[in-house]
Design a protein that fits this description.
binds zinc ion, 23% strand, 9-stranded mixed sheet, alpha/beta, Aminopeptidase
Length: 270
């Protein structure tokens, strides 16, 4: 079924077909939750692990207007299989397929699918069923090595906020966790972004009021799954990358996917 967006993104089913090649290569697939459309279509949300004690975790597709990460992960499958053979990797490539399909930031309940405030002591209940399932998996079932590194691929559709002005074009990142800002992996990711066609925006203020320092926001307390992984699982660095979108197709999706393919190699390489 064709996604409700005109940026050229492939259908959800195409992405799932690509991710399932990981299973054919021996990866374990863990079903986390499902999302249903009004027409009765069911979108599964899955995690894929190349082995226990994952040393690297990659997350994509949390926000539906930020498709580049989920698409890059589908295109990266062959490389993931190679990289997962030498080091255990956990991938959650498309956490909000409903949002991806509908071109909506949140899931069908209007809430962030990986909201972690209930696990961080800031909310009595999970924001939505997906948030309950995804955070429970991360805390209780996912097998992570101590200090596993995390990369969470986002984009920042600033066109969602009319009236907000952002000077730069390009990318920025969040680094969360013990020593995350100076961690060699963070430095490698930042160096890659600095040199890519969507280079780091070194200074400015995001639409969420966070000030950039050398293209980076350190230890954000935003109730995200990234904060949860850093605080409750001791992951570090937890790196969240953002590509600034001034319109649905500006910069073009193909370029953003290319940037994220290179970023995956920077994060998953030796
Ligand atoms: Zn996002």
């Amino acid at each position: 079924m064709k996604p409700l967006s005109c940026d050229g993104r492939p259908p959800v089913a195409d992405l799932h077909r690509a991710y399932n090649r990981l299973v054919a290569a021996g990866w374990e697939k863990v079903p986390l939750a499902e999302q249903r459309t009004e027409s009765g279509l069911v979108f599964p949300i899955d995690a894929y692990a190349s082995g226990p004690m994952a040393e690297r975790v990659v997350i994509g597709g949390i926000h539906g207007r930020e498709p580049a990460g989920a698409i890059a992960l589908a295109r990266q499958v062959d490389r993931l299989i190679e990289q997962g053979a030498s080091r255990p990797i956990l991938v959650m490539p498309l956490l909000n397929p409903w949002g991806y399909h509908h071109h909506q930031r949140y899931g069908p309940s209007g809430q962030s699918v990986s909201d972690s405030d209930h696990q961080l002591g800031r909310a009595p209940e999970p924001a939505c069923p997906e948030a309950a399932a995804i955070t429970a998996f991360v805390l209780e079932r996912a097998s992570l090595a101590p200090g596993a590194a995390v990369l969470d691929l986002h984009e920042d559709p600033i066109y969602e906020a009319p009236g907000y002005q952002f000077e730069g074009r390009g990318s920025y990142l969040y680094a969360t966790g013990l020593g995350a800002a100076r961690h060699p992996l963070t430095q490698r990711v930042a160096a890659y972004l600095q040199d890519c066609p969507l280079p780091l925006v070194l200074t400015g203020v995001t639409r969420f009021g966070e000030a950039l320092d050398q293209g980076m926001i350190v230890d954000s307390e935003d109730g995200s799954i990234d904060e949860l992984l850093a605080k409750r699982k001791g992951c570090t660095p937890v790196i969240t990358t953002e590509l600034v979108l001034t319109a649905e197709q500006d910069p073009p999706l193909a370029l953003r996917v290319e940037v994220y393919l290179g970023l995956l190699d920077a994060f998953l390489g030796d």
